[in-house]
């Protein structure tokens, strides 16, 4: 199952078999330390108005050295670090894909038969092209997978995600000068089409997607 922190919306994978027959368990978010209660989904239909995740109103238990703990409910329960997965996405398809990957039912990776590239149209790296060789690409000033050398670009400016269905999405990483698509600053993930342009700082890029089955590389 997927556990969502009510305070910061961080999402974690948790094996619901670890409920062990109890109705609720307490969790402490490893990101914001918020303590909340999760209802066992195996308990059947919930009463009207009750959700799987709810605030914990009892006294906060003392936490061990690992902040990503399942806190109970029974004293001495084995603490279990939880593995974060990406934040909730804006469409049902993207959210479903993230859950399948987190559950091990779908492997992340570049879709076969396509080549993805970024062409630098302006900025310090103008007139160059970089092939994208992984499903998650970080664009940054001096760090990441695509280096801009642009002082108007943040250190971690934006992230490109290439999904198994061949779609490409861009997300701004709370950069100082923003990420712009079609001339508008984005605040949530946006899907990019082949040959579509976007701007990070003073650097403008064009996404290039080529079907190498139909158009083989020379």
TrEMBL record:
Entry-linked Pfam families: FHA, Zn_ribbon_4
SUPFAM superfamilies attached to this UniProt entry: SMAD/FHA domain
Domain FHA: 137-186
Compositional bias per record (Low complexity), positions renumbered to this chain: 61-75
Naturally occurring in which organism (per UniProt): Geothrix oryzae
CDD domains in alphabetical order: FHA (cd00060)
Residue ranges with Pro residues bias: 76-87
Stretch list, region Disordered: 56-89
Name of this protein: FHA domain-containing protein
InterPro entries found in the cross-reference section: Cell_Proc_Reg/RNA_Proc, FHA_dom, SMAD_FHA_dom_sf, Znf/thioredoxin_put
């Amino acid at each position: 199952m997927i556990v969502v922190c009510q305070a910061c919306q961080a999402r974690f994978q948790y094996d619901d078999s670890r409920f062990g027959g109890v109705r609720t368990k307490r969790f402490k978010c490893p990101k914001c330390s918020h303590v909340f209660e999760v209802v066992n989904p195996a308990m059947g239909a919930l009463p009207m108005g009750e959700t799987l995740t709810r605030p914990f109103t009892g006294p906060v238990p003392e936490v061990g050295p690992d902040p990503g703990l399942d806190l109970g409910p029974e004293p001495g329960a084995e603490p279990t670090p939880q593995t974060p997965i990406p934040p909730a996405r804006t469409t049902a398809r993207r959210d479903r894909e993230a859950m399948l990957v987190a559950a091990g039912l779908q492997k992340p990776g570049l879709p076969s038969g396509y080549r993805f590239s970024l062409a630098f149209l302006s900025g310090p790296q103008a007139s160059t092209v970089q092939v994208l060789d992984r499903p998650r690409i970080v664009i940054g000033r001096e760090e990441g997978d695509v280096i801009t050398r642009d002082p108007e670009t943040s250190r971690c400016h934006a992230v490109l995600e290439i999904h198994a269905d061949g779609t490409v999405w861009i997300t701004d990483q709370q950069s100082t000068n923003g990420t712009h698509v079609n001339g508008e600053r984005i605040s949530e993930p946006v899907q990019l089409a082949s040959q579509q342009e976007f701007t990070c700082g003073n650097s403008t890029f064009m996404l290039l997607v080529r079907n190498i089955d139909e158009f083989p590389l020379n």
